[in-house]
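[Meeting: bench + compute handoff]

Bench side (C.D.) handed over the final construct sequence. Compute side (W.E.) agreed to return the predicted structure before the next meeting so the bench team could plan truncations. Sequence as handed over:
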Amino acid sequence: MSHPYTAGRIVGSLPPPPGQTANFVDPPNHDAEMIALHTTCLILITLFVGMRLYCRAVVLRQFGWDDAFCVAGWMLSVAYSAITLKIAMTLGLGRHLWDVPATQAIELGKVFTHSLNPQQKKASLKFDV
């Protein structure tokens, strides 16, 4: 007899709640919502940064170091959205944990562990004492 929350040979990350079954083939997810959210935010960010750069470069004819930081921040936002969506599509971000195989959950945990910046790690260690 197989374990209660396995479907064939694939082991789920958590057991499904009563009345639910694990679905590893085509599980319900929030991919469409995540894509819509990131797309909307990136469009707004692009518009605001574009308006700022237009005003600074064309109207004021004065491009400063703070504008370069705005462009760098915009580029980092685009990179963050791309990485988050890639993780969502491949590792199961946005799904119920009983629909995510244990091997993918381990990889997802590694991504989150290594993506914490040093300040977050330092703050978490500070509160553990």
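W.E. noted at the follow-up: The radius of gyration is 21 Å. C.D. will use this when planning the next construct.
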